[in-house]
Amino acid sequence: MATVSKLFDEGEIAGRVDALAREIRSAFPDEFVVVVVLKGAFVFAADLVRALGRLGAKPRVDFWSLASYGAATESSGRVRTRSEPPADVAGRAVLLVEDVLDSGHTIAFARQQLLERGARTVSVCVLVDKPARRRSPVAADLVGFTVGDRFVVGYGIDCAEDYRYLPYLAALD
Ligand code: IMP
Ligand code: MG
Q: Looking at the CA of 79, which ligand is closest?
């Protein structure tokens, strides 16, 4: 049986989300597009866009379903799109919101695709960064939490579709 150990509780997450929203608010124009990478970023993005709204930002919100893991816990290195890329990014500032930055393959792929579709800029906001595991040379512009080589679940993030419902972030050991 896997052991679930709490890493960051609800209060800590809320504090980081508010701090990220303030950073985004000062760096972005009033209107920009948030592109939420599904499924893992759905809870994070729901909190983040409301924090942005409280600060007076007016982002559009779109979704993009990407997968590189399947049911495994290692990136396959091949990113699959499970939905059409977001429409209406041409000429706009895009904030890509992702759950975990691990090997970097997903973000490298998504950023390239959005730029090819004419996005003016693509910035990356991730809830969890795992820099030790990077295989593709990408960095996030905004990071909620940095962790070592742990498998993270909860707050929308799954392991084989389980644990998304946890209100906190945990490590699976
Ligand atoms: P990448 O290796 O940076 O391309 O990350 C690919 C995807 O793997 C991310 O979007 C996450 O959904 C998933 N992933 C990477 N690390 C973890 C983890 O620790 N827990 C759950 N999902 C992860
Ligand atoms: Mg993901």
A: 1
